[in-house]
Amino acid sequence: DFLFFWGAVFLVTTTLVAFLKKENQELIPAKEETKGITDTYRLLFSIIKMPAVLTFCLLILTSKVGFSAADAVTGLKLVEEGVPKEHLALLAVPMVPLQIILPLVISKYTAGPQPLNTFYKAMPYRLLLGLEFAFLVWWAPKVKHEGGFPVYYYAVVVLSYALHQITLYSMYVAIMAFNAKVSDPLIGGTYMTLLNTVSNLGGNWPSTVALWLVDPLTVKECDGAQGHTCATAAATEV
């Protein structure tokens, strides 16, 4: 219902903008960015062919491989180990004010001539937090008792998530600042859209691959069924 409601709101508002909003002819620049869809794609390909842009795209497409599994799978594994979904959802509440404050704080460090320095400095800490998340998953069954999980376990989880948010936003804001800095003002919209799209893709494809590899890389044991490894869905069903 939530998604349906906001989907309807988006459709209505964008349709109203399309039909009712009129451009101010006096403020339209003499030279437009592009003349149509074909010109836009030609412009995109010409931007991608630039050696610096190509190198940067390869960087951001592969930079998140190291922590994709920790980001995508940790929550699912905690649920698998018995942590209630509603408790994990509640742990996201303290992160909201942090997510509001972090970009404001981090933007001070990314406003200089080298915004990617913040990106590079945050990366090793985010990789180390991947090991921390693995420890949290391993630790969960050790501290679990009949009443659930102790308060100190949830405290460690919240602290770990908070540190993770700091590294995540440091890298995110740095990339956005760099994209804004290097984009040519004459074709700013096209340039920024290209770099931001590649940046989003660089975060999404490793997470998808990580989720796909969870089952093949998970070691399983079947209780009371000797000779079965439960390595496949069919064996698990048996």
Written description of the protein model:
- Keywords: Membrane, Transmembrane, Transmembrane helix.
- It is a multi-pass membrane protein.
- One of its GO terms (cellular component) is membrane.
- The chain crosses the membrane at residues 6-22, 43-67, 87-111, 123-140, 152-175.
- One of its GO terms (biological process) is acetyl-CoA transmembrane transport.
- This protein is mainly α.
- It has a domain at 48-213.
- It is built from 10 helices and no strands.
- It has helices at 2-20, 37-48, 51-62, 68-80, 85-91, 95-110, 116-143, 151-182, 188-217, 233-237.
- Helix 3 (51-62) runs parallel beside helix 9.
- It starts with a helix and ends with a helix.
- The mean pLDDT is 87.
Short description:
It is built from ten helices and no strands.
Considering the chains and any ligands shown, give keywords for the structure.
238 residues, 0% strand, mainly alpha
H and E string: HHHHHHHHHH
Poorly predicted sequence stretches spanning 5 or more consecutive residues? none
Mean pLDDT metric: 87
Q: Tally the helices.
A: 10
- Tell how many strands the DSSP assignment holds: 0
Distance between the termini: 37 Å
Specify Rg, calculated over alpha carbons.
23 Å
Indicate the topology.
Blueprint: H1 2-20, H2 37-48, H3 51-62, H4 68-80, H5 85-91, H6 95-110, H7 116-143, H8 151-182, H9 188-217, H10 233-237
Transmembrane segments: 6-22, 43-67, 87-111, 123-140, 152-175
GO molecular function: acetyl-CoA transmembrane transporter activity
Protein name: ACATN protein
